[in-house]
Amino acid sequence: MSTTLIWVLVIALVVLAAALITGVALVRRRRIRLSDAEAEKPTEQLRPAQRGGGYQAGGGFNLSATTAAPPVERTEVDGQPGVGDDASVPRDSHRQGIVDVTLPAGDVAAPTEQAAPEQAAPEQAAPEQAAPEQAAPEQAAPAPAETEQQTPGTTDTGATTTEPPTTPVPVQPAEPPTTPVPAQPQAAPQAPPAVTTDAASTETVVPTEVEEIAPTEGRLERLRGRLSRSRSAFGQGLLGLLGAGDLDEDSWTDVEDTLLLADLGALTTSEVVGKLRERIASRGVRTAGQVRELLTEVLVEALHPEMERSVRALPHSGRPAVVLVVGVNGTGKTTTTGKLARVLVADGRHVLLGAADTFRAAAAEQLVTWGTRVGAEVVRGREGADPASVAFDAVKQGTTLGADAVLVDTAGRLHTKAGLMDELGKVKRVVEKQAEVDEVLLVLDATTGQNGLTQARVFSEVVDVTGIVLTKLDGTAKGGIVFQVQRELGVPVKLVGLGEGPDDLAPFEPAAFVNALLY
Ligand SMILES: Nc1nc2c(ncn2[C@@H]2O[C@H](COP(=O)(O)OP(=O)(O)OP(=O)(O)O)[C@@H](O)[C@H]2O)c(=O)[nH]1
To answer: Ligand 1 centre from 458 Cα, in Å?
Structure first.
C-alpha cells in the first residue's frame, strides 16, 4: 500500500515537473528576448547601402511591348466590397468587361447629317472610306448618352463617319498627314461596327522648343528622402518596436497598430504579423537584427515582387503602344502622363500625347506644356469635345506619324457619376476600334487613403486596369497604402509619383521600396 502511494506521488511529481517545464518553454517562446549584439552587425539586407529613407529604384524604367499577359488574380469575392476593413475581403468576382458598356447611339447615328463636306478632303479620303457597309444595322445602337453631342460652339466641322479597322480617319487640320492612314491589319479580323467621331474638333500641337532631358538611368537618385514621412511613421516605429528587448504580446499589438496606422490595411497587417511571428518561432530567431531581416522579407513578400511591372509602352505589330491614363480629378493624371512621356523620350522614343480631358481646358493646356517640354506632339480637343474622339484621333495620328507610344490623358471626373464612367468605357472602346489598348494606368493619390481604394474599385469595373500609378507618396506618412491597393485590385503598382517635378516619377520596386520605408 505504501509502495503504491510512493509510486503515485513520484508520478504526480514527474507530471508536475513536465508541466512546469512546458509552461516555461511556452512562455519563453511567446516572449522573445532579443539581443542587439547581432543587430550591430546587420546583414546586407538589413542595412542597404543607401540610408536615410531614400527610395532608390535600382534599375531604370522597365518598358515593354504587349505580349499575352497572364490573367490578373483578384483577391476579393464581392464585386462591391465596402471601405475600411470590409475592403479587404478576398474576392474573385467577375468584373464588368468593357464590352458590356453600351456605346451611346449618338456616336453612330446619322452620319449624313453630321458629316460636313470639308471633312472629306480629297487627300484624306481613301476610296474605302465611304464603304457602304459602314451603315451596318448594328451602328444604330440605342442608349443616347450625354457625351454624344458635340456642342455647336466647339465643333467646326461636325462629325465624320469612319470604320476604324479599314478606313482612314480625317486627320487634324493643324497637321494633316500627307499620306492616307494605313489600315490596321491586326484589327481587321474583328470587323467592329463603324463609329462616328468628332475628329475635326481636334488639333495637333507640334512642339517647337524641346527641353534637354537627363537620361532616366541613375536620375532616380534625386528621389532620395522623398518617402521620409512614411519612413518616420512606419519604418522608425517598427524598427523601434522590434529592437533589442522583450518582444511580448503588447509589443506585437503595437506592431499591428503601427502597420494599421501606415495604411497597410487589416488583412495585410495580420498576414504580415502572423508570418513574422511564425518565422521567428520556426527559425529560432533571437536577435533584433534577425527580426528586422525577417520583417524586410515578409514585407517584400506582401508586395508580390513576382508581379509583372513593366509599363507596356513600346511599339509592337508595327504600331504605337497605346496607354490610357485614368483616374479621378486631381490625382495627378496629367502630371503623370507628362512625366511618363519624359521617361519615354529620354529612352529615345517618339511619343504623342492625347489630351482627352476635354472637360477642363486647362488640362489640355497643361498637357501641351508637357508635350512642348519633352518634344511630343499633342492631339487636343476643344473644351467640351467628345473625349473618345480626341483619343481616337490621337491614336490615329500616332500611327500616322510612326510614334512609338500614344499616351492618352483622360478627363478626371467624379467616379460616382455612372454616366461619366460609362464615357470612360466608351473612350477605351472607341480607341480599340483601331488599336489595342496596351496599358490602362490608374492614377491614385496616395494621400487620399481609403478613398483611393474606393476609386480604384469603381474604375476597375469600367476598364481593365493593368497598372497603378500611386502619386504624392512624398506627401503622406501612409506609404503602406501601396500594399492595400495591390491587394484590392490584384493589379501591380507600376510607378510611383514622388513629387511635382518633371522627373519625380519612379518605377515601383518592392525591395527598394521596403528598404526605403524601413531604413
Ligand atoms: N507632391 C506631389 N504632387 C503631385 C504628384 N503628382 C501630381 N502632383 C500634383 O497634383 C496636382 C494635380 O495634378 P494633375 O496632373 O493636374 O491632376 P489630374 O488628375 O490631371 O487633374 P485633372 O486634370 O483635374 O483631372 C498638381 O498640382 C500636381 O503638380 C506627386 O507625385 N507628388
So the answer is: 20
Determine phi and psi for 441, rounding to 5 degrees.
-95, 120
* Nearest to 415, CA basis, from 374, 466, 453, 371: 453
**Ligand 1: which residue has its CA nearest to atom 21?**
330
Residue in the structure block whose three cell numbers are 493589379: 491
pLDDT over 90 (residue 442): yes
Domain that holds residue 447: 98-110+151-176+203-211+309-518
Strand partners, 508: none
- Across the range 108-136, mean pLDDT stands at 32
Are 281 and 343 within one domain?
no
The verdict on 376 and 288 lying in the same domain is no
Distance 363 CA to ligand 1 centre (A): 11
Probe target for ligand 1 pocket from 228, 339, 500, with the most ligand atoms within 8 Å of CB: 500
- 334 and 469 in a single domain? The answer is yes
pTM, two decimals, is 0.67
Give the count of domains, the chain.
2
Q: Measured from the CA of 471, which atom of ligand 1 is nearest?
A: 31
Residue type, 385: A
Of 195-204, 222-231, 405-414, 497-506, the range with the lowest mean pLDDT is 195-204
CB 478 within 8 A of CB 259: no
Residue 330 annotated in ligand binding: yes
Residues 298, 389, single domain; the answer is no
**Is pLDDT above 60 for 110?**
no
- Encode pLDDT of 411-434 as tens digits: 876 555 566 677 788 888 898 888
User: Rounded to the nearest whole angstrom, what is the distance from the C-alpha of residue 330 to the centroid of ligand 1?
Assistant: 5
Do 479 and 342 fall within a single domain? yes
From the CA of 441, how far away is ligand 1's center (Å)?
15
Q: Could you tell me whether strands 311-312 and 32-34 are parallel, antiparallel, or unpaired per DSSP bridges?
A: unpaired
Report ipTM (2 d.p.). 0.97
Residues contacting residue 86 through CB under 8 Å, at least 6 positions apart: none
**253 and 330 together in one domain:** no
Average pLDDT of every residue of the chain: 69
Q: Average of pLDDT values for 17-31?
A: 71
Identify the residues whose C-beta falls under 6 Å from ligand 1: 327, 329-335, 357, 360, 363, 412, 471-472, 474-475, 497-500, 504
The Å distance, Cα 60 to ligand 1 centre, comes to: 23
One domain, residues 498 and 376: yes
338 CA: nearest ligand 1 atom: 15
Residues in the chain: 519
Q: Which atom of ligand 1 is nearest to the CA of 331?
A: 19
DSSP secondary-structure letter at 137? G
Ligand 1 atom nearest to 339, measured from its CA:
6
Q: Is residue 29 part of a domain?
A: no
CATH number of the domain to which 230 belongs:
1.20.120.140
pLDDT for position 304: 94
Going by C-alpha positions, the residue among 311, 338, 308, 335 that lies closest to residue 323 is 311
* 415 in the same domain as 337: yes
CATH number at 489 reads 3.40.50.300
